[in-house]
Amino acid sequence: MNILVTGGAGFIGSNFINYILSERDDVFIVNLDKLTYAGNLENLKPSEGKKNYQFVRGDITNNELVDYLFKKYSIKYVINFAAESHVDRSILGSEIFYRTNVIGTNVLLEASRRYNIEKFLQVSTDEVYGSLGATGLFTEQTPITTNSPYSSSKAAADLMVQAFHHTYGLPVVITRCSNNYGPLQFPEKLIPLMILNCLKDKKLPVYGDGMNVRDWIYVIDHNKAVNLVFEKGRIGEVYNIGASREMANIQIVKLILNKLGKTEELIEYVKDRPGHDRRYAIDSTKIQTELGWKPSFEFEQAMEYTIDWYLANKTWWERIISGEYQKYYEVQYGNR
Ligand code: NAD
Ligand code: DAU
Questions:
Q1: Where in the chain do CATH 3.90.25.10 domains reside?
Q2: For labelling alongside 24, which of 196, 277, 297, 330 has CA 20 to 30 A away?
């Protein structure tokens, strides 16, 4: 089973590849990743050197390269994790988001059509459903309503994936997951950013009133669900993925402070994110009843493990937060 996995050097993709290759030896994985600021080959150490794993550095928007890889490796399956993934960066500059997330997905879909692949799995996000008020949950029937350049680029890709199924009969499935946490997450995202700032006794920049709510899932639970949808998901369908663990941002920040033995004086309320979605919450009844998935990690324990992972992997994040990331941090937080 030859699978093209894109974006496999990022947070979720690398956890996915390491997990799948530790579980299965009936797959051959070609990992196509551009190695942007968010891609890191160190994440793939457990998979390096395996005979059923091949890394290729390249861009999913590169038609010729993608075509060459489909032919060379007789690709029959695609799992598309590759994306520009950070909402704040999409607000600072949107172009690369549409290029990678929309044009890149189009290049992969066209190649999938030319080579008659057997399944195309698009890794999407609950952000395509917009924002919830105090109550209610996103279901697969919730209309697409996007608010950030990032979410609109992901929604555009989803609609295109569905159109390729409808028009050409391309065998596609889409997963829409809520906020992930766990080892190997790039420290621009809420949880690792707060952990690292705490460790350095730096201020913890909480946007707005800190009461925006996200629905947290451990990355391995997400990846198990992706694998299940890849194996058994019905063609043409969308599956929501979430672990029903809603938390206000300020609760997350306080949990991290508490675990690291720091005081709340480090908290700094800063200017809100423009267009900040208030609340996300996922109804994952469909994947649970149809495919038998359920989350297996308990939130407090998995958070504790995640924090310990960052404590134990200082060299991993120290390399990352030097250089380009420092420049981004200045632009993003300098004037807040
Ligand atoms: P990430 O930013 O950590 O990793 C993205 C990876 O894609 C990086 O390795 C990067 O080098 C690669 N990439 C970027 N542009 C590329 C291009 N043009 N060609 C090839 N590779 C390219 O992102 P993540 O958090 O691991 O997210 C992975 C996917 O899951 C994304 O599609 C994202 O929208 C989706 N998602 C993320 C979350 C979350 O909480 N992080 C939740 C739901 C869905
Ligand atoms: O819901 C799934 C989405 O979750 C994914 O599709 C995205 O790829 C992923 O980045 C994530 O998006 P969010 O915008 O929800 O994640 P982020 O970690 O950037 O922010 C989480 C919340 O924390 C959000 O309400 C903004 C807030 N926040 C974030 C940062 C970085 C702060 O208050 N301060 C910060 O410094």
A1: 182-214+245-322
A2: 297
Which pTM value belongs to this model? Answer: 0.98
- CATH fold group of domain 182-214+245-322: UDP-galactose 4-epimerase; domain 1 (3.90.25)
CB-ligand 2 contact for 207 (6 Å cutoff): yes
Residue 249 identity: N
Tell me the C-alpha distance between 61 and 107, whole Å.
Answer: 6
Strand ranges, E, within the chain: 2-6, 28-33, 53-57, 77-80, 119-125, 172-177, 179-181, 204-207, 213-218, 238-241, 246-248, 267-270
Q: Which CATH superfamily is domain 2-180+217-241 in?
A: NAD(P)-binding Rossmann-like Domain (3.40.50.720)
In the three-class reduction of DSSP (H, G, I as helix; E, B as strand; rest coil), residue 206 is classed as strand
Report which bound ligand comes closest to the CA of 66.
Answer: 1
> Tens digit of pLDDT for each residue in 2-47?
999 999 999 999 999 999 999 988 999 999 999 999 999 999 999 9
User: Active-site residue 127, yes or no?
Assistant: yes
